[in-house]
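Input structure tokens:
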């Protein structure tokens, strides 16, 4: 696996080595020993999966306090634009984002440590998205920021008339309303 540091400390893109032949392909999606060797010593306790169609934007979400989560994200089918926004207390990159295209053909993944909002937009006709978390979900600890917050200025690469967002995600406030993560 190739571990690629991004512009924000702690957020890492991972490219697996894919072995293909006439039967199809094989790759190792997770190997704890390799992750630890590359600075990711996270124990995952929950896996989540979603299926979405073109134009869906999910996020920006996070768990706060003792329920915050580090995540390892990947796409099983299709392509998404994955976004991580730094909300760590005192971080020099607070409010900045890392944007990575995750795609099932490449098999690439994104590791996001605790203290980040997370969201994605679906760029393909359909996408199956999965992620590992290092902490269990707690409904009362969920918080978020509107996907279209002007201060974040994220280009989700979906035309405005094609965007599909949940009613819950439309109700989040802006980045100025987020309580900084203190981990």
């Amino acid at each position: 696996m190739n571990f690629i540091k991004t512009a924000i400390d702690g957020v890492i893109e991972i490219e697996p080595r894919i072995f293909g032949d006439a039967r199809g392909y094989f790759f190792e999606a997770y190997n704890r020993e390799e992750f630890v060797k590359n600075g990711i010593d996270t124990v995952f306790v929950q896996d989540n999966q979603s299926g979405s169609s073109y134009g869906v934007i999910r996020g920006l979400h996070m768990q706060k306090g003792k329920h915050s989560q580090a995540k390892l994200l990947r796409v099983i089918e299709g392509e998404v634009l994955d976004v991580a926004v730094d909300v760590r207390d005192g971080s020099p990159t607070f409010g900045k984002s890392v944007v990575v295209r995750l795609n099932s053909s490449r098999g690439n993944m994104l590791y996001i440590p605790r203290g980040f909002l997370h969201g994605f937009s679906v760029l393909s006709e359909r996408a199956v998205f999965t992620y590992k978390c290092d902490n269990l979900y707690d409904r009362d600890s969920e918080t978020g920021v509107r996907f279209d917050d002007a201060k974040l200025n994220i280009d989700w690469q979906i035309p405005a008339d094609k965007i599909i967002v949940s009613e819950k995600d439309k109700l989040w406030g802006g980045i100025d309303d987020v309580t900084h993560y203190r981990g």
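The mean pLDDT is 94. Helices lie at 32-37, 167-170.
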